[in-house]
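Narrative of accomplishments. A recurring question from our advisory board has been how the design workflow behaves on a single, concrete structure rather than in aggregate. To address it, we present the structure tokens for one chain from the evaluation set, followed by the sequence designed for it. No filtering or post-editing was applied between the two.
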């Protein structure tokens, strides 16, 4: 189905991708890869991990207490999943895949929300991984949404997580050899319950900033980088009363060379956009309805129809669909 939704200054058309795909979709019918009964695969990353110039799939397997790796066979199909255990009752919700020890091989960083740890699996070559270490965060912080970005300007990528029950963003700084030290937190506000974080320079000073989706306080927090890996107190932008922003993504949605904030508002049945003034402050939210009985969950941005305009892709938890808002 296609539904046109208009608003100034960006226009979007809505398409729903199901199995089989709706008429007019530009996507083939889905191919499925079994992970295991009731193992609940969650967030994933698509990165070439075995240096064959073909993207592989790395996924957090929540109820399987593991990370799964599906290597690309070269034809766009994938080999059976290989699982790496994250520990008993870890319930990992998210992964990031980045070279953390400067050996030019991407490693796996996983958040274990139930055991309050962050696990590191080092790439030992040929798409195989070896468990390196678990890094403990304070009890009951429930870390999610790992990002691996150099935030203190030393050229070594650091680990950033949303501490859902710790009402903060936590950072482990990279010591330079792929080990991590100096756990530091930055408050997102009392009872904020941050569920997602993006790490992007939003004010043009070449220092990555923190953009946070705060579930319980229904707002987006922007923490500007003050230098040396320290961050200013957050500035908050409302996403609507009881909107429950499940995820945030940062991308230039209106093609003005300024990164904007895109948010999935779970309870409000809409996608919200905060356009960037250019100095790290943002206009009030513009919303795009996603339809009755939808629950926008995880949102990303990419050009899906090759028209050089960024489109919005999000998952609908209620209807088990992927929905695309095409930019036009």
């Amino acid at each position: 189905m296609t539904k046109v939704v208009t608003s100034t200054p960006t226009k979007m058309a809505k398409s729903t991708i199901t199995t089989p795909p709706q008429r007019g979709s530009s996507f083939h019918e889905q191919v499925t890869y079994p992970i295991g009964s009731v193992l609940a695969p969650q967030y994933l990353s698509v990165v070439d991990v075995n240096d064959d110039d073909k993207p592989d799939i790395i996924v957090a397997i929540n109820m399987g207490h593991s990370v799964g790796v599906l290597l690309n066979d070269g034809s766009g199909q994938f080999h059976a999943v290989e699982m790496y255990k994250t520990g008993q009752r870890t319930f990992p919700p998210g992964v990031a895949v980045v070279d953390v020890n400067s050996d030019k091989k991407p490693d796996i960083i996983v958040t274990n929300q139930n055991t309050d740890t962050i696990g590191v699996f080092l790439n030992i070559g040929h798409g195989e991984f070896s468990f390196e270490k678990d890094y403990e965060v304070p009890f009951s912080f429930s870390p999610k949404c790992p990002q691996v970005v150099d935030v203190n300007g030393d050229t070594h990528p650091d680990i950033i997580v949303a501490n859902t029950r710790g009402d903060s963003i936590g950072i482990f700084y990279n010591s330079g050899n792929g080990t991590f030290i100096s756990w530091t937190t930055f408050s997102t506000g009392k009872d904020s319950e941050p569920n997602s974080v993006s790490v992007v320079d939003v004010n043009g000073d070449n220092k990555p900033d923190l953009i946070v989706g705060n579930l319980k306080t229904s707002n987006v927090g922007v923490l500007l980088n003050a230098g040396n890996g320290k961050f200013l107190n957050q500035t908050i932008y409302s996403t609507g009363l009881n909107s429950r922003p499940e995820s945030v993504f940062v991308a230039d949605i209106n093609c003005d060379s300024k990164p904007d904030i895109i948010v999935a508002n779970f309870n409000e049945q809409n996608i919200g956009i905060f356009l960037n003034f250019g100095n790290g402050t943002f206009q009030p939210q513009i919303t795009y309805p996603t339809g009755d009985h939808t629950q926008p969950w995880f949102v990303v941005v990419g050009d899906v129809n090759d028209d050089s305009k960024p489109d919005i892709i999000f998952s609908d938890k209620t209807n088990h669909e992927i929905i695309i808002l095409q930019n036009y």
